[in-house]
Amino acid sequence: MKRLVLLGGGYGGMRILQKLFASELPEDLTITLVDRNPYHSMKTEYYALAAGTASDHHIRVQFPVNEKLEMKYGEISGIDLEQNVVSFKDDDDLPYDTLVIGLGCEDKYHNVPGADVHTLSIQTIDSSRRTYEVLNNLGPRSIVGIVGAGLSGVELASELHESRPDLQIKLFDRGHTILSAFPERLGKYVQSWFEERNVEVVSESNITKVEPQTLYNHGEPVHCDSIVWTAGIQPNKVVRELDVEKDAQQRIILNDYHAMSDYNNVFVVGDCASLPHAPSAQVAEEQAEQIALVLQKQWKQEAPPALPPIKIKGTLGSLGSKHGFGVMANRPLTGRVPRLLKSGILWMYKNHNG
């Protein structure tokens, strides 16, 4: 009996299952998917859940059903790469023959005192629910500080403005202009969009400390009724604790087939993998398709295929329900078109998975 264990039902895990179930699988294969929740949730939309413009139900997708698929729910405490077992906090160990690690990421607080205690998060569906509850219960004209003006921070700020226009939103970013990973034109467009709507963008900020309802920018206190942290990510703690080769961001370095060099039966997908691209759902899905192909070749005892470099088709972001921005085929887009494109992609994803 061959046992494939997938740790995490995120974008990478879902795409691997989709590809495997569309192919002929060995008779003696069992697939176990491990996750904390009984459904896949679209992490790219957590900002909308936190802001109150999307419901919990609308960002969930049921896991696929297949006779070869077993589900296991629980909190993973560790991975023993030598013994080929996954351990849990409150359950028995789970052995594997082949393992795919897709445990996602956590907030990275950059050693800022108090940031992990006194800020809200949108990294998990549970933390996004809690953030929604806090933000939804704020009184009129309350001040919300959002630390980090990358894609997540920008989308949260714009969606929160649409949901609660009575709030005063302050968006803090280290750069001279926001969205530094995008073309300068897009950063200027989004910054102007915020300025027209009285969302304050605090550029060249340096958050040095966080206390209850107060963050310190360059050492100066700034009152905020609530503070949301979107200023960086790091791999899941279980991955950070593995004694394997990693890059400077603590992501696992892999061979040409997305497996660990010293453990070629252990693959890593998504945010925990060291790749030449920034972590994203798109990268995880592209990588997952290649992992599924490698697995199929292994089970047939065939030579692994030559895998092409992962290519990014583009990136899209929303500014509320009517505006957006992004890059498609190296072309910057702003306005209604990128927002409509993103809505269409989300609809396709939700209705063609599970």
From TrEMBL:
Which residue numbers delimit the FAD/NAD(P)-binding domain? 3-288
* Entry keyword Oxidoreductase: yes
**Organism domain of life:** Bacteria
GO biological process, alphabetically ordered: aerobic electron transport chain
Keywords, A to Z? Answer: FAD, Flavoprotein, Oxidoreductase
A molecular function (GO) held by this record is: NAD(P)H dehydrogenase (quinone) activity
Instruction: Enumerate the Gene3D superfamilies for this protein.
Output: 3.50.50.100
InterPro entries recorded for this chain? FAD/NAD-bd_sf, FAD/NAD-binding_dom, NADH-Q_oxidoreductase
- State the needed cofactors, names only: FAD
Q: Name one Pfam family in it.
A: Pyr_redox_2
Task: Give the record's family classification.
Answer: Belongs to the NADH dehydrogenase family.
Q: What is this protein called?
A: NADH dehydrogenase
Organism, scientific name: Guptibacillus hwajinpoensis
